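We modelled the chain as a single entity of 443 amino acids. Its sequence is:
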Amino acid sequence: MESPVTGTETDLFPTAADPNEDHVEARGVFIQNDSSDDELVHVTRDASDRLTFKDGDNTTPVPLTDLISGGTVPPIVAFSGYDSSGGTSIVSGWTDVPLDTERKKTSDFAHTTPSAEVTVNRDDTYIIAATVATEITTGTSRSDSEMRVQIDTGGGYVTVPGTQLVIYNRTASQGKGAVTKAFVIDLSSGDKVKVQARRLSGGSTVALRAGSEIVISTTRGPQGPAGPSGGNTVDVEDEGSAVGTFDTLNFTGAGVTATDAGGGVTDITIPGGSAVDEKVKVSANDTTADYLLAKLAAGSRIAITELNDGGNEDAQIAVSDEVQYDEDDTARSTTNETGFDLAQRLTTTALVGGTYRVGWYYTWRHESISDNFQARVQVDGTTVHSHEQEPKEDDIEQRAVVSGFAYVTLGAGSIDIDLEFSTDDNNDASWIYVSRLEIWRVS
């Protein structure tokens, strides 16, 4: 590519066919796609010989890592913004949470303070963590407030399933509360994200407190430097001792054949027979030979399984899922006072043995202030969380939130994680609303 100081001209990069193509000598050039002539990168050079790279519209800066590595993730892809002022009333329905302060914003995001809307400029998988803090500013009516995360992919804003959480606001002097929702989601360039809140119930004036925020980042880090390229020679060793470096390998011996299989592949055939040892060693000084499956050792989150026993066998090496979860936002009730009813079950895929973090979250209500709500979380029948509570307020429509986690040691295979609940009086129902079960491997 090249352009004179005045005017515009399009040229090509040097290639194997024409290594003498011009290099950049101009103060204003752009890189084009040969097939469509679409401008891909616009390059300018100032009087001090500093180069600036922008997109085809000459508006948005292009990270240098994109030009070098062909579109890999830059060192940091993150946005963090929050409401530093608070005071926005949420009594009139769903209200955008303003972001009047930006803590971090890379070029992969677009945002203008104090707007609630954040636009992503890169196709990727993102971690989003949203926090909403509310309080009663005036009034004595106990109230509930609620948050949600919404995404607009081009057809208008819709709520991300499982992101609606409830906050209990008691009184003006003791009515402060906050809740955080974190999740992983795939987003495309141009998608928009925002957080909203509203007063769900009660008659007091509920407003946002300073500190509501949203954090968005990619799930993967930058690509490391490229490894060394291959050469045109082969280093040959005889059981660990160097023989030399050669351009050509010549296979000899009775029955050994070498054929051109096409596509740059050579097939080397070495005949076997009953005299061939079926067992293997890890290295030349391995003291014990054994069959392949016995010589393979599975590391963390790895499972090795023998397939097609007695036939044409394979050794399958599989990596276990890092995170598994299940969400349910339906209302469920029970009047069972003699045992527990199942509210939700997460059945995992096959796990490898190890230590896991099992987490739970649920919103509950009980229809009496003189009897108890009861719940428990079990992992394959073993209780890891037990909850029994009597509502202490006159308003039996009041909802409360319980969350927590436990570390458990599991063997290999699939497991069931159950959320169960009951009542201690069959005349009064217990309720569970939004709930979530999750598990991930720790070690």
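As a brief sanity check on the tokenised model: The longest strand covers residues 124-138. The helical segments are 64-69, 292-295.
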